[in-house]
Write a structure and sequence with these properties.
The structure is a single chain. With 161 residues, the chain is α+β, with helices and mostly antiparallel strands. The chain has a domain of 111 residues: Nucleic acid-binding proteins (OB fold (Dihydrolipoamide Acetyltransferase, E2P)). It has 3 helices and 6 strands. The chain has a 5-stranded mixed beta barrel with strand order 1-3-4-6-5. Strand 3 and strand 4 form a beta hairpin. The N and C termini lie far apart (63 Å).
């Protein structure tokens, strides 16, 4: 049984490392995807703690719904094979709608540290008129954005004043 399990795991790990076939990609982006199982558990959650890279931009959608866009920078430290460390920064584009967007416009500024809870959202990946697939982009749709207090001090928001 153990040999069978290891063989099956090895096959799964090898398959996961392969590039998807063209047929698999086409099925993923099909205009009419097959019916999915409704009772299968799934989750799309993102949680980020980082610094606001620039002042948020507030806009209004075509349906008169407010939204805000901000960029959050996160830092991590990677250990290299030789034992040394390399710092890595990543910029995340965050979009918030409705009351969350209004809160961001009033309370979030460049340089603040924030906690963002939300979900991943993808755009692109569809075939254009010339049969070329558009680039797929990842965005984060924020459900909550909370300013974090600096060490030894308060964050500057309406709620904490």
């Amino acid at each position: 049984f153990l040999a069978w399990s290891l063989e099956r795991f090895s096959f799964s790990a090898a398959r996961a490392a392969e590039q998807p076939t063209k047929k698999e990609v086409e099925a993923l982006f099909a205009e009419n995807p097959q019916e999915r199982r409704g009772n299968a558990y799934s989750m799309n959650r993102v949680e980020l703690v980082g610094g606001v890279a620039n002042d948020p931009v507030s806009k209004t959608a075509k349906n008169d719904r407010p939204y805000a866009i901000l960029n959050v920078i996160t830092n991590s430290r990677l250990r290299l094979g030789n034992g040394e460390y390399r710092d890595q920064s990543e910029r995340h584009t965050i979009t918030a709608f409705g009351k969350t967007a209004e809160f961001i416009a009033k309370n979030i500024k460049k340089g603040q540290r924030v906690l963002v809870n939300g979900r991943l959202h993808y755009t692109g990946g569809q075939l254009d008129d010339n049969g070329v697939r558009t680039p797929r982009q990842t965005h984060i749709h924020a459900e909550t954005v909370q300013p974090l207090a600096r060490r030894g001090g308060d964050s500057h928001t309406e709620e904490s004043s």
